[in-house]
Design a protein that fits this description.
385 residues, Arc Repressor Mutant, subunit A, five-stranded antiparallel sheet, 9 strands, elongated
């Protein structure tokens, strides 16, 4: 994108070499970050398939959480605050299911998002005959960090496969803000009031019909027997083979009715669970240690692009610029050339290029060092890294 009509052809090869040197150097820096995070995460990794040698530290994961948060921010994610999480839980689910999360199972929960946009989707209503257009906030990417309690009871609750004190990392895509509950490992599906009415009202109506038609005689006979046995009635009731068969048939009918209603409830709940499972299947991108690798790659890409853009626009401009001018030029370039509105992080970009010696600042004015000098500087840093 930068090379499209912006740099003379004679400098194109040098600029490409500069880019590859910059990318290689940042890759090396983030490789060390990833390896450090892997070592810190190893004792708490629930997916580990190796035996512990006892040489890695099993100290508190608080430093790991801080280092991970820094890597996530370098990947241009934003923290989802506790208030935003609570507001999300109060909103109705886009998938027409009610979810519940027990936060008492966790000692620490952190959520981060990247890419927030408004979307519209048609949601089925009333058996699918009257779909409703719903507008919602969608997160392109969501990172979930969860640490289980050290005293979490093994084999109990909804997370029977999790070890106490283990740390879970998850990466998801295209998550509606109102459905953040589905990203937690102990999510439980609950029946909504509407679903209870859909099951309860027909059950009461059919139950009344069963009682008045098929079970009326059985209930009268059973009541007479109980009344005679407890002394409420002095008139004996003959319990013949025919009446015993009638009682058994009546109670069998009643048991079948209750079983049918229970099955209806279970089947509806299973349909909700199936909808939740299918939804998560296509939204899950990575898990646990794999999230560290993906975030490291994303952070490297983001840092490289920021540094490259800051250096490129200073190199292309004939006069030094202030920070505000450089920030404005880059944002306008994205808007005019690529129809993209963004807030360029000028502070992060300049910190990198100045640390690498690619940009000079004199009395608040910024200027890029010449391209050959920049390449030589990166080569020297690489040789001594």
């Amino acid at each position: 994108m930068c090379l499209q009509g912006s740099i003379p052809g004679a400098q194109e090869a040098s600029f490409r070499r500069f880019y590859h040197q910059l990318d290689r150097l940042l890759h090396y820096e983030f490789h060390r970050v990833i390896e450090s995070l892997k070592d810190q995460y190893a004792p708490a990794d629930p997916d580990a398939d190796t035996r512990s040698s006892g040489l890695l530290s099993s100290a508190s994961t608080e430093p790991f959480a801080d280092a991970l948060a820094q890597l996530i921010e370098q990947s241009n994610y934003n923290r989802i605050t506790q208030q935003e999480i609570e507001q999300s839980f109060e909103k109705s689910s886009l998938f027409n299911i009610r979810l519940h999360v027990d936060f008492d199972d966790f000692s620490e929960v952190l959520l981060f998002s990247r890419g927030e946009s408004l979307r519209n989707e048609s949601v089925p209503r009333l058996l699918g005959f009257f779909p409703k257009e719903v507008e919602f906030v969608n997160y392109d990417r969501v990172v979930v960090y969860i640490k289980l309690r050290d005293d979490y009871p093994v084999g109990e609750g909804s997370m029977t496969e999790c070890r106490p004190g283990s740390t879970l990392l998850k990466l998801f895509q295209n998550v509606p803000r109102g459905d953040l509950e589905m990203l937690f490992p102990n999510t439980a599906v609950r029946m909504r009031t509407r679903d209870k009415l859909l099951i309860g009202i027909p059950a009461l109506m059919s139950g009344g019909i069963v009682l008045t038609t098929k079970l009326g005689a059985t209930l009268v006979l059973f009541g007479s027997l109980v009344g005679f046995w407890v002394g409420l009635s002095s008139e004996p009731v003959a319990l013949t083979k025919a009446t015993a068969v009638a009682l058994l048939a009546g109670f069998g009918t009643l048991a079948g009715y209750f079983w049918k209603q229970f099955s209806s409830f279970k089947n509806r709940k299973l349909r909700f669970m199936q909808a939740l499972t299918q939804n998560l299947y296509f939204k899950n991108l990575d898990n646990n240690a794999g999230v560290i690798h993906r975030l490291g790659s994303d952070a490297q890409d983001e840092e490289c692009k920021e540094a490259l853009l800051a250096y490129f626009f200073l190199l292309r401009n004939e006069q030094p610029m202030t920070r505000q001018q450089l920030d404005h030029v880059i944002e306008q370039w994205f808007f005019q050339q690529w129809d993209c509105q963004l807030n360029f992080e000028i502070g992060d970009a300049l910190e990198k290029v100045q640390r690498l010696g690619l940009v000079n600042e004199d009395q608040g004015l910024l200027s890029a060092v010449a391209l050959p000098q920049a390449i030589a500087t990166l080569d020297k840093i690489w040789d001594t890294a």
